[in-house]
Amino acid sequence: MELAYLAAGIGAGITTLGAGIGIGIIGKSAMEGSARQPEASGDIRTSMLISAAFIEGVALFGQVVCIVLALK
Amino acid sequence: MKFFLIGILYTLLLLTGFVNESKAGEAEENRVDLIGKVVDHYYLDFKPAGTIELPRIIYDRGSFHFYASTTRLINKSEHFTDAHYFGSTDMQEGNLKPSSYIIVRTEDGTAPQLDLSITSHLVFFWLAGALVFIIFIPLSRKYQAGTGSETEPKGALQNMFEVLVLFIRDEIALQNIGPKKYLFFTPYLLTVFFFILFMNFFGLMPWGVSSTADISVTAVLALFTFLATQIFASKDHWKHIFWFPGVPVPIKFMLMPVELMGLLTKPFALCIRLFANMASGKILIFSILGTIFIFSDLFGPGVAYGTSWIWVLLTLFVYLIKALVSFIQAYVFTILSALFIGLAVADHSEEHAH
Q: Which of A48, B106, B247, B263 has its CA 20 to 30 A from that of A20?
């Protein structure tokens, strides 16, 4: 039982780490992109949000697994 | 950013739960119903003015049972009672919060077949729906009459919403669905956007609850997007799922389950994303405010009073982030719906250069 809580906590941490790295990379590329081509910054922002949302979705799957573990 | 916050939340939630438990004996009256605030409940909270209990509708063994409130159900009903009172004769015993009631049958203590009770989430769900009607039906009449379509838009309301409507039509629908079919899906996208936005904003108001922090609400919204995607899908969409063009035959069989999974994970992710984002905001605010009580337990009330302004300011900051997240999540749900619809209805016949 206690191990499930431990797993949930560690899992939540790792998911957060993955999502943070992913969104960080997107933000970095988007900033570079709009610095090189300021006129395309609107399009870049839209695609940045979409990719961030996809990463968020994957990370949320992980979070759901953690919540299920914690509620067991 | 969001995930960093959710990370803290897990820790703080445990701590607040601990504090809540240890203080339960001494301050029973002033206890905040934390779980009741986060999950759905059967009353509207207007503290300090009081609470309004909502009607209970329970379907069991072929008949409907109506009760004006949960308290009335427990005190008056011969069919149902609360799980905590089950077997005891004294109905006044204990002081439970309405959120902790579990309705069971009087005779055997099992749950009734179907609980169709009106909940706080449902009330604000209806309010948001009514608001969409109240604002947009007169607005569309105005455009049909010529104000805005032939002349300039008049009034603050029309100007404010025209910006958003045009943004959704031109930046979301046109960009993601394509010039041929975007006008057909724009009404759906507009409805989804404003409905989610209003539901999210109700969570920011005093005493309000955001219905989008309920997984069943977001699941239904995601289901509608899923249905819109599948019903209006082009032939190529199905071909890409069941018989992927341009790859060897064994690969076609391997891709089929993968594509089918992808079909189902899209609405699932839509549902979970909106739910988790809206629910985490609530829990986060309670967790940050709970830190004051943790400090009071650890270092004494003096330190808690002295440092409370930090947590109140932090709560204000989180509240502003919630306002931002309300907008972003409504936008993300709409743009992803548009994207999925756009992918499904796209006709690949003219550009077949795989």
A: B263
